[in-house]
């Protein structure tokens, strides 16, 4: 039973979903991009499909779909009809829809607005060791590079090779972007990326961490839909569930650096941040109890729960 039928003040739910409104004609690939778009994102979608050239699962219909051949070949479109008087889609639920209807065994959770990304072949031709990480339930991070937020920055020229990117970052022309941190200062760790010759483990995880990441379509928690737009919440439960995050050293994404972390208003952001603090502790308790009941609390799988619960409880001065 829907909560909106039980509680009159519940938020409206977009329950009219039409999967595969359009289905791509290209072959199914090992990894699909999943992204969410609005009616103004057609150019960004076409750019993404051209660069990636693999099947993508989307959450909004584009009127121009049939007039752009690259979309017909590489993009699946799923339509979500919003409830009356709703002005903005709730991205958490849309992310789940895109993942649910993906036709690939692995999904790459990606924002719609980007300047460049590595092609599908550069990701899908990864070593067996990398694919094995996904099959073991771990996640891969595609590092995102962006321009610094300052005036007179030319954002239509950028390097697309690893060596060139290192030169630009070292010169201060670009930086490794993790929202919530200054450039090059987030958990993805530019210092480690620069030295890496293979995927490396994220060792400084934080519950605000929200990178572009790849997982198996199955066997991972879904994004929490109580939030409008909180990508770190999707990653947080994946982390608590036992997944390690490994950063790809030879694949990356480029954004302008002007994109906000989310599209919330200031008041909405304050409410969501408060909810997320409570959610952090709630999920710690949930997974600790689940692992205890399953008899795995004393195994390596529960190490992230122990690590994060101690940090969360200490921060809230509960222990």
UniProtKB/TrEMBL annotation:
Keyword Transmembrane appears in the UniProt entry: yes
Record protein name field: Glycosyltransferase family 49 protein
Membrane topology value: Single-pass type II membrane protein
Main localization, broad class: membrane
Organism the protein comes from: Absidia repens
Single biological process term from Gene Ontology: protein O-linked glycosylation via mannose
Lineage: Eukaryota, Fungi, Fungi incertae sedis, Mucoromycota, Mucoromycotina
GO CC, alphabetical: membrane
Molecular function GO labels: glucuronosyltransferase activity; xylosyltransferase activity
Keywords: Glycoprotein, Membrane, Signal-anchor, Transmembrane, Transmembrane helix
Subcellular location: Membrane
